[in-house]
Specification:
The chain is α/β, with parallel strands linked by helices. It contains 27 helices and 23 strands. About 55% of the residues lie in helices and about 15% in strands. A hairpin with a 2-residue loop joins strand 9 and strand 10. The radius of gyration is 45 Å and the shape is elongated. The N terminus is likely disordered.
């Protein structure tokens, strides 16, 4: 019995022990598992995140260090573009740094130091970036080696410290987990005989935990794959089945998982060559080493994609059982590389074009320079032969203007490329603009035995608001080219057509056509590129810089217009330019004394557009008008109407018509109707050679093409002897004697320019005093008595003190004439911006070098008349 009770007691004790041990094991297991869970969580949440972010940051840092020299030298285009590229990289680095700072369990000084070094790196690189345009490639590399690469190394070292600490933390946590695992296993082994059921339950629990962990890892892998541009596959070689396809497949490849399970669905998107290469890769035998292949995936409604496929064999017992395959989208990277190559090619072409341009410019500039030097030498050798000297001086003047036009072309192009060319917005008279252009081109065309014609169609708005100078430049460029490239007896035509009025904007179409050498389709693609000409022989035969059409295209664009070109080799070229101008109310063209609505007018011209346009203008004046296309028909109509109530009072007749010209038509009209009908000859040319014959034939007056309302009105007023509508005449060019006795302070640092200006002023009997810089000018004025100087001519770019500073110093002084003394800029700085700077500095006018003598005299007199005693209003005159 005692033994039984002992046994029971032992059994009870054993049971109690087992229970106690089971409880201890349970608590130990719970504690161990909890510690493992916490350690795993800490590994993934802190050290693992820090380690990955640090490695990403270090990888980008090494990339940036490797390529920063290329970005700032060979691939450098502009500060803005490179700064944007670097800012994107900085943003990625800062994002990783923020993660490290948040999760890092090590010393705070590590992350603080990392932040400081990154800020220092960004600051140094920004400082270098803004200095790149001023540095050579060698200086940039020296700067990188001395100041920036050491900072890269310090950042990298700091990241290495953080990575090391994070890895050590991971190892410590893994060690802790291992210790806990060993303890749990040891406890399980000791108690396995007593707690089989508990062991089985624990085993099941651990299995469930393992499955859960695997599922969690797969979920994390899926999340990762959704945020990268690589699609991952696991292919079971034995089962010939895709065990895994990353869920980002549809985003990257445009194919879902079901489609990718079918080999043909993927290969159908590839070219035949790529299909063959892919088949060769996987079917030429078992792939035992890493391999990769580039593929082009043809787009279906979207752009094509360039893919990089990599295959990694998984070996078990030296047998390949699976392939891990990644397919990355390389499209953006390849396009970026192609863009860089294209940019390099364009840069090389631009460089070649500029080299060619410099070669041509050397020839173009040396040609007039040779003429200037040669003619000056000849004039010096024949100093006593007045006619010879005058001939040399005339040729020197012509060559100088040609040289100036070349320089202006280059400067205009420079301003356009810098985006600093400004447009004016001022009222101007279209008639004066067109007549000025036609008179220049007509003279050029006649000197080359070419036929030039200008017509105006449906034109009613003579006063508009815009940039007359730029419109003049555009049309002269196009027409001068037409003259240059049109052979003898060729035809050149300018048509100005008003095509509509909308929202107070007048739309004009300018058509310039010629029968010249024309252009081929290849050159038309490059027509508006700077420094371009059809071939090198063009420059040799016709001259020019290759900038004219580029300037024209840019000016049209700056004015908000459009330009088109149609051309065929050996047949000719047509340019069509459309520009808009602000409408401006013009004064009425009706006389307050007499009206013209009682006149009956006949228009005779073989050009129907001219007839219609002229009749339209006459009818708007209230004049009854009819038109015909032939001289014979006009004679018949006038004879039939003679003596009736519908007799014609005035007849406009074109000079050059095919069957019967204007003079013969006038002669026949006079023969039959006498002097009852006034006859006006219309001509697009200089009528001086035929004026006497026309007068003898009975012509009363002449009018030039293109015809405008104001010119028609004034001509009718003249021939009918009624008051004319004319704008007040401009003042004639000022004669030098009007400046006699005036005292001018000339401020000029260049001795030759000073001598030239002094002699020009002395030709007008001006008293001239000279100083060499702005500081001397200020001292000279401040030490003078009130009224001593009548005017100051101020150069701008001078040593010690420039012209702007000197002017401001005078204006801000206490001198009695500080505000009223006229100060004029006389400088080679000839752009609109320079005129604005002169006004801001307090100058009264701006005179551009080289000096136009007549314009200089006119400007000086005008300024002296406007500000004799009063204060200067700083309104700058542009000359």
């Amino acid at each position: 019995m005692k033994s039984y009770f002992a046994s029971k007691k032992a059994t009870a004790a054993g049971t109690i022990i087992i229970c106690v041990i089971s409880i201890i094991f349970t608590l130990s297991s719970i504690y161990s598992i909890r510690n493992m869970e916490i350690a795993a969580s800490r590994i993934y949440e802190h050290p693992y995140t820090v380690s990955n972010s640090s490695r990403e940051m270090r990888s980008r840092l090494l990339d940036m260090k490797q390529f920063i020299s290329i970005f700032l030298t060979d691939s450098f285009h502009s500060v803005e573009e490179t700064e944007a590229l670097l800012e994107a990289r900085y943003a990625l680095q800062q994002e990783s740094l923020d993660k490290i700072t948040e999760k890092y369990l090590g010393p705070a000084d590590d992350t603080k130091k990392l932040q400081e070094k990154m800020d220092e790196l960004i600051a140094e690189q920004s400082q270098l970036l803004y200095s790149v345009p001023d540095y050579s490639e060698a200086e940039i590399n020296d700067y990188l080696n001395e100041y920036i690469y050491p900072i890269y190394d310090e950042v990298s070292e700091t990241l290495t410290t953080i990575i090391t600490f994070a890895n050590q933390k991971v190892l410590a946590l893994e060690k802790e987990m291992k210790y806990t695992s060993v303890l749990a296993i040891s406890t399980a082994v000791l108690l396995s005989l007593f707690i089989i059921i508990l062991s089985i339950q624990n085993s099941r629990h651990m299995e469930r935990r393992r499955v859960h962990d695997v599922a969690g890892r797969e979920k994390m892998f899926d999340l990762l794959s959704n945020n990268v541009d690589d699609v991952f596959f696991i292919y079971n070689l034995k089962e010939k089945w895709m065990e895994y396809i990353s869920p980002n497949c549809e985003r990257i490849l445009g194919l879902n998982e079901d489609q990718l399970q079918q080999y043909d669905a993927f290969t159908a998107t590839l070219s035949e060559n790529d299909q063959a290469a892919l088949y060769q890769l996987f079917h030429s035998g078992i792939l035992r080493n890493q391999a990769e292949i580039s593929l082009k995936m043809e787009g279906q409604g979207i752009r094509d994609k360039w893919l990089l496929l990599k295959a990694y064999p998984i070996l078990v017992n030296d047998q390949v059982v699976r392939y891990i395959i990644s397919i990355g989208d390389q499209t953006d990277a390849l396009l970026a590389q192609q863009n860089l190559r294209d940019a390099l090619t364009l840069a090389q072409k631009a460089n070649d074009a500029k080299k060619d341009f410099l070669s041509r410019m050397s020839h173009e500039i040396r040609t007039p320079m040779n003429a200037i030097i040669g003619m000056a030498t000849i004039a010096a050798a024949n100093i006593h032969d007045q006619s010879r000297v005058e001939d040399c001086l005339a040729k020197i003047g012509f060559s100088s203007k040609h040289l100036l036009s070349l320089i202006n072309d280059v400067l205009d192009m420079s301003k356009i490329e810098e985006g600093k060319l400004t447009m004016s917005h001022e009222p101007f008279e279209f008639r004066q603009l067109i007549q000025s252009i036609t008179s220049i081109i007509d003279s050029q065309a006649r000197s080359r035995n070419q036929n030039f014609e200008a017509t105006v169609v449906d034109f009613t708005e003579e006063m508009v608001v815009g940039d007359a100078m730029r419109v003049n430049q555009i049309l002269l460029n196009l027409l001068s080219n037409a003259v240059k490239f049109t052979p003898e007896n060729g035809k050149i035509r300018l048509e100005v057509r008003q095509i509509g009025i909308r929202n107070n904007q007048v739309r004009m179409r300018f058509t310039v056509s010629d029968t010249g050498i024309g252009m081929n389709e290849t050159f038309l693609q490059r027509l508006y590129m700077p420094f371009e000409q059809a071939d090198s022989m063009i420059s040799q035969r016709f001259g020019g810089t290759g900038l004219g059409m580029s300037i024209t295209k840019n000016l049209v664009s700056l004015l908000g217009g459009t330009i088109q070109v149609f051309s065929k080799e050996n047949e000719g070229t047509t340019f069509i330019v459309e520009l808009s101008f602000e409408r401006m109310d013009a004064p009425a063209l009706t006389s307050t004394v007499e009206r013209l609505n009682q006149l009956n007018v006949l228009v005779v011209d073989d050009d129907q557009d001219t007839c219609i346009h002229t009749s339209l203008l006459l009818e708007r004046m209230g004049i009854l008008a009819k038109w015909v296309l032939k001289g014979e028909e006009a004679v018949k109509i006038i004879i039939d109407a003679h003596g009736s109530d519908n007799e014609y009072d005035v007849c406009f007749i074109d000079w050059q018509m095919p069957d019967m010209d204007g003079i013969e038509t006038a002669r026949r009209i006079r023969k039959y109707v006498g002097a009852d009908t006034l006859i006006i000859i219309i001509s697009a040319y200089d009528w001086t050679p035929i004026e006497q014959a026309a007068r003898e034939a009975g012509v009363n007056a002449f009018i030039s093409k293109p015809m405008f309302a104001s010119t028609i009105y004034n001509t009718l007023m003249t021939v009918t002897r009624r008051p004319t509508y004319e704008k007040p005449e401009e003042k004639e060019t000022v004669k030098p004697r009007e400046l006699a006795g005036k005292r001018v302070l000339l401020v000029e640092d260049n001795e030759l320019n000073m001598e030239i200006a002094t002699e020009i002023l002395k030709m007008a009997d001006v008293k001239v005093e000279c100083v060499n810089n702005g500081r001397e000018a200020v001292d000279q004025v401040l030490n003078s008595e009130a009224g001593y100087y009548d005017l100051v001519l101020m150069d701008i770019q001078m040593p010690i003190m420039n012209g702007y500073e000197a002017t401001q110093a005078i204006r801000n002084s206490n001198h009695p004439n500080a505000k009223s003394l006229p100060i004029l800029a006389m400088t080679a700085n000839a752009f609109v911006e320079d005129i604005a700077l002169a006004k801001e500095a307090g100058m009264n006018a701006h005179i551009a070098k080289p000096i136009d003598v007549s314009q200089l005299y006119t400007t000086l007199t005008q300024i002296l008349q406007e500000t004799p005693d009063g204060d200067s209003d700083n309104g700058v005159l542009e000359n």
